[in-house]
Amino acid sequence: MSFSRQVKEELLNQISPARHCRIAEIAAIISFCGKCRYSEKRGRYINVGTENLTVAVKYFMLLEKTFKIKAEVMVRRSHNTTYYQVAVIDNDNVMNILQAVKLDGGKYVNGLVVQNICCKRAFIRGAFMAAGSITDPVKSYHFEIAAGDEKRAERIKDILNTFNIGCRYTIRKKNYVVYVKEGAQIADILSVMEAHVALMSFENIRIYKEMRNFVNRKVNCEAANIGKTTEAAHRQIQDIMYIRDNMNFENLPEHLQEVARMRIEYADVTLKELGEMLHPPLGKSGVNHRLRKLSEIAVNLRRQKEEKNDIQNNQCKH
């Protein structure tokens, strides 16, 4: 079962005890997947069509709970798709619903319906049920609602902003889609819709992913540090062995002789560990200072040898 379906099945049983909140959710469902039509045979009627059985059931339950209406349900199958239609055809019932939901132009939510914070929550819940989806958080973070046109996209964006959820919208195949890609904000949306079980599941996955990423960064950082330490130790040992072969340790000050011998003997230890082996023990910066002195000596020895070779080569030419 997809994560979107899990969330919608949880929201199926989220029926607000407040009538005004149920009206806000009904308004969202009609706005995003319903139409108000007129025919000579039926007169005025409201039809909500969806491929999602959960949405059809939720809308049916909201109508029954709010208006005491038992809507007509029709099922149509085409190829591999099942399509559900929930229709209210009684003229009095239609007028009662339309007066309550106050949809401007039959499809845009009126500000009066979503004045309260609780009604805004219900509207977002209905919009998501009708036209929303959430990607499985194991794969990525992506929440979206297919708004249809720019006016509805702006309305969704404004309502989400009241909960400090920053969202954007884009055009996909001439359809305006409102979306959020931040894990923390998607968690906030689940909380707004009161999908508490889905929220716990989402947060568990998010915490696991963040811990895994932290551990990976830590391991990569440690590996990089080990690489740098090994490379530095290799250079230090090369310098010390060059001094040994061209100058002898006995010509070095005693404190440099000690650290030079210890560095060769314990090639893999860190500067801190090397300092602890010295007598008396020395801090990391002190060890590093002595190794730099040895490196400078090795550089001078190499330079002197190069100058001597250059002189000898010039004498041979003459």
Attribute tags:
318 residues; alpha+beta; Endonuclease I-creI; 2 domains; 4-stranded antiparallel sheet; rod-shaped
Count, helices: 11
Bin the helical content.
55-70%
Q: What is the N-to-C order of secondary-structure elements (H for helix, E for strand)? A: HHEEHEEHHEEHEEHHHHH
How would you name the CATH homologous superfamily of the largest domain? Homing endonucleases
Beta-strand segment tally:
8
Envelope shape: rod-shaped
Q: What is the CATH first-level class name of the largest domain?
A: Alpha Beta
CATH architecture identity of the largest domain:
Roll
Largest sheet geometry: 4 strands, antiparallel
Question: β content, as a range?
Answer: 15-25%
- The termini sit apart by 89 Å
Mean pLDDT: 87
CATH topology of the largest domain: Endonuclease I-creI
Uncertain spans, ≥5 residues at pLDDT below 50?
Answer: none
Strand order of the largest sheet: 1-2-4-3
How many domain regions? 2
Whole-angstrom Rg:
37 Å
SS content category: alpha+beta
Summarize the structure.
It is built from eleven helices and eight strands.
Task: Give an account of the 3D structure.
- There is one protein chain.
- The protein has 318 residues and is an alpha+beta fold.
- It has 2 domains: 3-194, Endonuclease I-creI; 214-317, no CATH class.
- The chain has helices at 3-12, 19-33, 53-67, 91-101, 117-131, 150-161, 183-192, 196-246, 254-265, 271-277, 284-317; strands at 34-39, 43-50, 72-78, 81-88, 132-134, 143-148, 168-172, 175-180.
- The protein has a 4-stranded antiparallel β-sheet with strand order 1-2-4-3. A 4-stranded antiparallel β-sheet has the order 5-6-8-7.
- It is rod-shaped and about 115 Å long.
- The N and C termini lie far apart (89 Å).
